[in-house]
Design brief:
Layout (H helix, E strand, L loop, with lengths): L1 E4 L5 E4 L2 E4 L8 E6 L3 E6 L2 E7 L11 E3 L2 H8 L12 H4 L3 H13 L2 H18 L2 H14 L4 H7 L60 H19 L2 H15 L20 H9 L2 H4 L14 H14 L3 E6 H13 L3 H7 L10 E6 L11
Parallel strand pairs: 3-7
Antiparallel strand pairs: 1-4, 2-3, 4-5, 5-6, 8-9
Helix pairs in contact: 1-4, 3-4, 3-5, 4-5, 7-9, 9-11
Length: 373
Amino acid sequence: MLTAKVSKRSTIDVRCILYTVPSRLIGRQLELHLYHDRIVGYLERHPVVELPRKRVSGKGKRRDRCINYRHVIGSMRLKPRAFIYCTWQSDLLPNPEYRQIWKQLKAQFDLEQAAKIIVEGLYIAAVQDKEQAVAAYLQQQLQASSLTLNRLKKQFEPPQMKQVPDLSIEQHSLDLYDKLLPSYSVPAKPLPTPEPLFKKAQALPHADPLGIYRIPSYAGKLVLCGILTGLVRNGNSTKRTSSSKASSHRSQTPKRKSFTNFDFSHCPQLNPAPLMQLAADPGWLERAENCLLLGPSGVGKTHLATGVSQKMLEFGKRVKFFAANALVQQLQQAKLQLQLHPVLKNWTAMIYWSWMTWAIAKSRKRKHPFCLN
């Protein structure tokens, strides 16, 4: 396996052999796999070119070249006079038939006009895959002394697409979609009353009622109760703490944000009991359930998401915190560096997405992501 950079002439040098490659690869670093009969070039682990392998033959001959006119004829068509002084001139002509045509063109036209005709013929042969048809037409016109560049272009001009007629489409009524509903022919039943998003937790007999959770003292008790419950369930606090610090560093969660320093009185519409229940028991994570926080800007969604993430870290779960703008910039940079596929492959576990900020956690045995917006 070798590596070679494509030169500005769209060539690579492999074992003293000069090969041409497609001009779109100019400036790229190719990874070459050498076989006994071919050379396969890879770019970012994807095969982009396959060349016939050639070996130096003959005594006293140290270098050789393998030229394919299909690789360079597109750029040469912009400057057809370069064909006159090209050192690969005989190699660009694919067979003896084209070499004979080039001799006849030089005899009947001046060099500049002959170069334009032969380059245009090679371009048509490469683009339309009509190498034999172009050669036969050139020989026929040369014998009749009626060959011109415009006639050559017109002879092999690709068929034009038929003009699409103007269509007048009448927009159907949107009421027709009602017929697709199962309840169209059946009297509509009254919709059930939707359940509230957050249900009030039942008050424990040994605790103060949650109906007055807006008082700071009760919020502090709830936070301390969740923390103590997590400490009791964790066990081996020293080992858990060190592991939690390492996991918190890898998760990139915002620091100094937890349930202990969140002011629940700032958002009186929020019932903290369900969040405390999620933070105290990771069973919902094992069941691959999602937690979605919705609300206007500045109410503390990121703060609460970080608090739940830290609790999951204490239970030994894997957490990853993302900001949407940083993620978009990372994807754009990976695309420019041709690394988009490996980056997306590393994020196969990220199923749920949001537009603001999110955290993703996975259990150790199975990948169970959850999204916090």
